[in-house]
Amino acid sequence: MPPKNILALLKGGDRRTIGRSNQVTAIVSKDSGQFPQLIAGLWSSDQLVRMRTADAAEKVTRKHPEFLLPYKKELLGLMTETEQQELRWHLPVMVPRLVLNPRELQAAISALQSYLKDRSSIVKTFALQGLADLAQADPAKGEASVRPGVIEILREATRNGTPAMKARSRKLLIQLERVSERRGRSRFLTAEAVRNDNTLFTALHFLIVLESLQSQPVPEAIRTAAKRIGQPAFVAQQDAGV
Q1: Which member of 20, 39, 40, 93 has the greatest number of CB atoms within 10 A?
Q2: In terms of C-beta density within 10 A (0-12 exposed, 13-18 middle, 19 or more buried), how is residue 164 classed?
Q3: Measured distance between the N- and C-terminal CA atoms of the chain, rounded to whole angstroms
Q4: pLDDT in tens, 179-218
């Protein structure tokens, strides 16, 4: 039976240890009903409890990010307001696990940019991680996307950051650029298929050939796609058995 007050397990000792944070992580991971009590510890008057709560909450929500959803407004506010170093380590990792609207996303980006002015190299490194996570999750495209701005911040960190920031930024840039390439390739192929009737005609014809080799009828979906993109000649050929 889990203890009635899991925050009591996070008290005592000093800031050099996480105390029984891992024990609390295991308890809450098995009993989601304990999570509201855990998250409340982020606002405890005891700085050790706040620190260890942040550690445990981050670990729990790696597998259960949905636990954070009811606390989105509070977490965004805390990330902006807190001066405690340990919370500034963990919040940049947790907040990107939330589903954010454009206004909330910009608020999170602004808060993390302010963390880059922190004296702690660890805080700044986690801020870079948070910015990259937000950029990777951002569904916006083009000028509306936060990715170009974040990529520039990471590039600047590879030039002028601490050794830890430089190493982390290089890894994050590789990840972001791969995501951008995949999304760009997908959009390019889709746009080209729509703009270039010859390309689309060839693709449709290739599918038909594959179907004919298997002695199966032309799928209705392919015929519908041909009609939708304006290939009546293609449809007529298939109707005529060409």
Answers
A1: 39
A2: middle
A3: 73
A4: 656 555 544 444 444 445 455 545 555 454 444 444 445 5
Whole-angstrom distance, CA of residue 204 vs CA of residue 234: 9
H-assigned helices in 31-81: 35-40, 47-63, 72-81
Residue of 232, 209, 207, 236 whose CA lies nearest to 221: 207
Give the per-residue SS3 of 121-185: HHHHHHHHHHHHHHHHHCCCCHHHCCHHHHHHHHHHHHHHCCHHHHHHHHHHHHHHHHHHHHHHH
- Per-residue model confidence as pLDDT tens digits over 32-41: 999 999 999 9
d(CA 167, CA 154): 10
Q: Flag residues of the chain having pLDDT under 70.
A: 1-3, 142-143, 179-242
Please tell me what DSSP assigns to residue 98. S
Question: For helices 21-30 and 47-63, what crossing angle results, to 10°?
Answer: 40
- CA separation (Å) from 149 to 12, 113, 213? 42, 11, 50
Contact 107, 96 (CB under 8 A): no
In angstroms, the CA 85 to CA 92 distance is: 12
Q: Counting every residue, how long is the chain?
A: 242
The structural domains of the chain, with segments of one domain joined by +, span 1-63, 76-189, 196-242
